[in-house]
Amino acid sequence: MLVAIVGPMFAGKTTELIRLVERQVIAGRRAIVFKPTIDDRYDPDAVAAHNGAKYKAVRVAPDESGVGAIKELSASYQVVAVDEVQFFPPSLAEVLNELADEKLVVAAGLNLDYRGQPFETTMRIMAYADKVVSLTAVCTVCGRPATRTQRLAPGPRIYVGGAGLYEARCRRHHSVPG
Ligand SMILES: [Zn+2]
Predict the structure, then answer these.
(1) Which residues contact 68 (CB under 8 A, 6 or more apart)?
(2) Mind listing the pLDDT tens digit of every residue in the chain (178 residues)?
(3) Could you give one GO CC term from the UniProt record (predicted)?
């Protein structure tokens, strides 16, 4: 079974990933959590949610070697979770789809980049998923459900940061800087 948790920043994607993994661990199932090395927000060895919840994670490179490592290291686990999937190459989707034949796989990531363009890897995982959990944040301008991530300054597509550099916005209040 493959569960995709998608949405903008500040929607609680990591919190939901941790919740799904913890229920499995409480039931005695062996779980492993991965995250990309690029993401060092808050705690280098844990998957950290913006609300402070944490879970121990294995950090792998967000490239083909990292995707290979996820496949290999998952072998003896019943539950496999990957956070921030948008940083990995699209081949991650095929690997998770394969793992999901035997295991519960939970994948969390951004749906759209700050320009409002889909992330290829997230898109592919959503297509393979048995269940898609689409989370919204709260628009910082109007308080309506936010499905987009607003960047407050221009820069590269992948730039890790939390509050201060990004805000959640609804469709109406999202704009591309620069
Ligand atoms: Zn709004």
Answers:
(1) none
(2) 999 999 999 999 999 999 999 999 999 999 999 999 976 665 666 666 666 666 789 999 999 999 999 999 999 999 999 999 999 999 999 999 999 999 999 999 999 999 999 999 999 999 999 999 999 999 999 999 999 999 987 766 665 666 678 999 999 999 987 7
(3) cytoplasm
Question: CA nearest 83: which of 70, 73, 94?
Answer: 70
Listed in sequence order, the DSSP H helices in the chain are 13-26, 64-73, 91-99, 120-128
Q: Is 84 designated active site?
A: yes
Contact by Cβ (8 Å): 140, 130: no
Contact criterion met (CB below 8 Å) for 134 and 11? no
Ligand 1 centre to CA of 169 (Å) is 5
User: Residue 61's beta-bridge partner residues?
Assistant: none
Point out the catalytic residue in the list 64, 72, 84, 167.
84
Q: Which domains does the chain have, with CATH numbers?
A: 2-136 (3.40.50.300)
Task: For residue 9, list its beta bridge partners.
Answer: none
Please list the helix, strand and coil fractions of the chain in percent, rounded to the nearest 5, in that order.
25, 30, 45
Q: Which helix (H) or strand (E) holds 146?
A: strand 145-146
Distance between CA atoms of residues 2 and 127, nearest Å: 10
